[in-house]
Amino acid sequence: MRWSARARWWERSAHESGFCTQLLRGLGQVAFQASARTGAAFAAALCVADWRLAAYAVGGAALGTWTARALGGPRDRREAGLEGFNSALLALCFAVFLGRDRPTTALLAAAGCIVVSIGTAAAVRLLSVWELPPLTLPYCLLAVAVTVAAPAYRRIWPFGNSLAALPGSASGRTTLHLDELALAFFHNVSQLFFLERWHVGALLLVGVFLASRTAGLIACAGSLTGIVTAWALSAPAERIVNGTMGYNAVLVALALCGVFLPAAPVTLFYALLGAATATVLTPAVAALLSPSGGHAFTWPFVLTTLGFLAAARSFPRLSATDRERAAGPAVGARGRDGSRPCLRSVPAGRRPVGHVSGARRMRSRSRAR
Hints:
Elements: H1 2-14, H2 19-28, H3 36-49, H4 51-70, H5 75-80, H6 85-98, H7 103-127, H8 137-149, H9 178-190, H10 198-211, H11 213-232, H12 237-241, H13 247-256, H14 265-289, H15 299-312, H16 322-327
């Protein structure tokens, strides 16, 4: 019996990707790409900005993946990198908002990565009742809790001033110059990692294209939608240019076209409508959370995507049959043999992809934010 159990363990281990591969896929999952190459490109882009930020992101993905493995979490989720992206974002969030040079921040980030992994398992279990993905909900909940509570603890927040601020009316110019459009376009991508650096956004976008040309084009369309929507509503040009108005639009576009819904013209329209909705929702969420010291983070993306996915079940044209999925463009990483896998439906509890587990009737990919 003992030797039989060891043989089964050895067989499972032989078919499991290495820890570093799972870690890099977790980084790639920040933009819905379960590609080690994309994760490596993201890590390199962060290094260009600040090696300490890269260390926090990589360390966070490693801790989240390790926690899931230590607690016996589903192997298919670890393989797809689904246990690493929430912890990577949380560690990076703490580094940006609480000071990346402080040992207390590093210790808090390590503890938070373990807790958010447990929170991810809870979110997967609860949302599977409605066959909805957890997305970045665990990260958002813990990030808001810590940033709101931080001023109450001197060791965590020794800076004196509070994070709380009353929301005010928009001010400043609303016209965009031509050179600012390119900055806004790339900043919408770089803000996925809390950065306002156009060259970092360009490198991150290259990482998405490395995994899938279709996903890269959809990300570009989402960024443009965020810019146009904010400009049409006369949002302050400063907020459009720095990317804080449009980064949620990039995530929503990726999620609703090619990840949870098939990549098709009708779903592209639906995804861009969702991207515009998330852009409008961003200042509303910021206004609700700012009096308590919280930030919007990716709440607009989570709320918009969950709402649009739930509504999609009422619109048959947004879903696809297995034959249509197999014939459609594959939005995913190439297989180990270099071939590009077909999109297909994934039964509950088996090989979850994207930011989804158990979404039986949602659009899924054979690679996995």
